[in-house]
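Board notes (copied after class):
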Amino acid sequence: MKSLLRIAIFCCCLVNILQAQDLHFSQFHAAPLQVNPSLTGIFNGDMRFMGNFRSQWVAVPVPYMTFSAAYDQKILKVGKSGGNALSGGMYLSYDQTGDSELSLLQIGTSIAYAQQINKNNFLSIGIMLGVGQRRFRTDNLTFDEQYIDGTFIPNTPISENFNNTSFGFVDVSMGLTYLVKFTDRLKFSVGSSVWHLNQPKYSFLNTDNSRLSRKYGVHLDATIPISPRMDLLPSAIFFMQDGYLERMVGAYWKYYLDDRKGMEKALLIGTWYRINDAAIGAVAIDYGFWRVGLSYDVNTSSFAVATRGRGGFELSGQYIISKVKPLEKKKICPIF
């Protein structure tokens, strides 16, 4: 019975009956290029390295493992104030699940341009272009034909025919972000994004013309000082893709252990809620130009019966490099 159930789940994935869902992280604020292409280059500094790892549903037979790495930097600053900037980024993501090791590999690049509207207001527009590969393996799969009189015989020939175990696709997405910044500790942003603009073909079957549906997203985040040593960092995302909805809202409370410029040290404690799915607790540490975060999901949906409430843990890391600005040239007094 368990074997038949696994076959049924696998076949659903194979013929693409189940609607596709994109990768997602509970620490979405630590994976900005996965949230909106226009967030490329939106940070204090010149170069940024990011990494995320997620392990989910280890209590059930089909656990998920998701990994993402990204890099972005400011390429060109325009104007005397440097408020206008062209930025570029690269990303790699990988997801794998189940006995079939059904996986998704994506590699791509993003570019964004931020325009300063006035002293405190900025607008950024970004586009992302990537390639992806979807694949599975049959080595660990079992089929009903291999059970003869109740005995499993692994070498028994099967009639299943897997002509294609992988396919590739090209993906295009874009986004827009509006930022209001008064200081580094008082700022607000809101953005929208459209993913899979070209709706690439997404099927293992040559005769199937299924397409990857467009995904629409909205994100909000802010930094609000509530005392000389404490900030509130609320954030939220909303994504819609066919019948799939992801809605998350929560906040970090950031306490400064050292607020000296370039030597900042802070402790962040936060909680988020993915509506109808999971409650999330998170902790992070800022140390200079580093930020390392750890979170854990507690499943609250009906699937909690299978997971026994356990969702998954997630680890994130970020490192920012700020170049030392050259000293301005000063005219020397002719007397000397």
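Comment from the instructor: The first strand starts at residue 47 and ends at 56. Helices lie at 2-14, 32-35, 304-307.
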